[in-house]
Here is the input.
Amino acid sequence: MKERLLAYYHLLRPREYLFFTLTYTLLGAAAAQSAFGWRWILVLVANLFAVGFAFVFNQVADAPMDALSEKSSPNGNPIASGELPLAAGQISAVCLLVISIILYTLLGWKALLAGIFTLLIGMLYSWNGLRLKGFSLLDLAAHCWLLATPVFLAAFFAQSSPSGSNLTFLLPSVVFISLFNQLRCESRNITMLDLPHPQHSILIRERNSVRLLMIVFLGIGIVCAAIALFIQQVIPIWVTFLWFLLSMILILPSLLRPARNVDVNDPQPALHTELEKAAAYALLAFTLAEIFLRTIH
Here is the structure.
């Protein structure tokens, strides 16, 4: 029984998306400037199920290829390793798909539309009939949407009366910063893992252009985020400063000693993870503060 539960844990891989889903869900809900309620919880669960579906579907689609791979890992594909039958993975994917759609439906058509984008991109990313990760530029766009934007939008539109003006600068910041991070991770993976070049040819042949594009994306994202957080103040300013404080606390150990499984000369992915965690903790503190204030009043 313990081995079966561990196999399902490896199938779901929650550690890979828990913090980012929490971060962008809470950010979207907070940016809507609506009081905490059941919609916050419902959209968080829906987003977790939707992103979980994308990861499970990817494991199911990649199982035949992973089974032939010489590389093995204790946290690898449990279907390819024989820990779970293919049918179990398929049933899990369908259950996650259906439950997430039901939850999104309860939150309104705009949240449902954003949720469907998450599910659709997650499916197309791995579906053998139209495999987005076989095309470098579409691969980057898919990851951008999968990792941040629809999760953020679903949480924003799930609230009862969101302020659309809050999306003017916050949404571009989410899109461009996530694109920067995806470009960074893709470029790093090619170097470290010696991935096949054809599907990422633009990252191999145009490295200087890609680096320039990364700088542009990051610059636009930071400027838009600064306007949204400090001028528009789409979330309370104390939450932003708490995020900065927590970021410094979490980043310091990563600077002093490289994180596991990260290239010593390339610590940015670990720093991004710590920034994501800091944002999640700060937004969670804001949510708990909202609950506390509503309780005492």
